[in-house]
Prior knowledge:
Blueprint: H1 7-10, E1 51-56, H2 66-73, H3 81-92, H4 100-117, E2 124-128, H5 135-144, E3 149-154, H6 161-178, E4 185-188, H7 196-216, E5 226-233, H8 237-241, H9 254-277, E6 286-292, H10 307-313, E7 321-325, H11 334-337, H12 339-350, E8 354-357, H13 365-380
Parallel strand pairs: 1-2, 1-3, 3-4, 5-6, 5-7, 7-8
Helix pairs in contact: 2-3, 4-13, 5-6, 7-9, 7-13, 10-12
Amino acid sequence: MTGEATIEQRTSRKAPPAKDAPLEPGALVSAATEPAQGGDPWIETPVDYDAIILASFGGPNGQEDVIPFLRNVTGGRGIPDERLEEVAVHYRHYGGVSPINEQNLALKAALEAELERRGIDLPVYWGNRNWEPYVHEALTEAHERGATKILALATSAYSSYSSDRQYREDFADALEFTGLQGEVRIDKVRQFFDHPGFVEPFVEGLREALDELQREDPTLDLGRDVEVLFTTHSIPTEDANRSGPESRHFGEGGAYYAQHLAVSGVVADDVLAQLRERGDGLEQLNWRLVFQSRSGPPSQPWLEPDINDVIETLPEQGRRAVVVVPVGFISDHMEVLWDLDNEAKDSAAQAGLAFRRTPTPGTHPAFVSGLVDLILERVHGTPKAERPARTDIGPWYDVTRAGDCENVRLGFRPAIAGLQP
């Protein structure tokens, strides 16, 4: 279905996959603003955007929404409803309402307030991949209010198919579905895994969690008795290997693994330095990167180790407490509330370990300010050399490089904001 769809059809369901993401004559990037059409990695020319679209995963708003939402999430895989019910129990535990919706509304309001505080006149629209309001609804609303140059901000910090390319596919789907190809340009904010505004809330949260543990048990030796587990969503190993440009040679796990590992190291080093500065005399923090929320068949390799498996082994290593840092997530959505605050917490209790889970960035002032800084990078065309990055991997690209984040099962579907395919 293309631009001939009725208004009711356009706003009643998720947009179908686009058949094409056409290039304008001489352009290397589909639907991009003029400075980005040539495909340079970093765009250092100012762009007078009309609007921002905050793009997210989406979630159900009630019990009747749960299975239709999960059908959207798993679209094209032919998973029967009875198997979807195995996942639905997580949502049904919370009345069928995903917390991500209120979190996105709170983030949208915080972004609007920070933009206004800085005197920046850019309206923010919210659109989801898998539930209302959909991306195509946000795009339609922005266009009806006069926007033709839009900057997209996805609520995902790292490189992978689901956290990067799939959002770029969503925008291609929305442009084709609404018939706005050729009328609306959409660029996308770079992956922000190592931006200071994203990193700071994790540093603050880990330091406070360690302080709480030691206040409750003064005999606890932070350098010997505590394990810090930085956790993120597991993904199929083959998909992980395809994250990041081939020219970067990230190796096993691709950019997805390398980015998470690098950020975890920065957070741990920052906290260790702060504890040393106040005279704690620590020589090290015990930490590692773990994974959670696996959903694939046992025969398919996914990134490991699983957080619960690791927690089970900690007592035999002499640990008495575990701090879980959800470094792969920006808000307390279902994978955090269920998989960490229930399952991981239960695993720690069974292992006899004290447990702390640090906050996600959410609407932390440093995070919100950092997102606005990222928006202004594109508005002002900030040179790469002036863009902050806490790891040697970044700053990441404004225009996704060719071949990045392929989905092994689906291949390369039409997408925007990057070099083709």
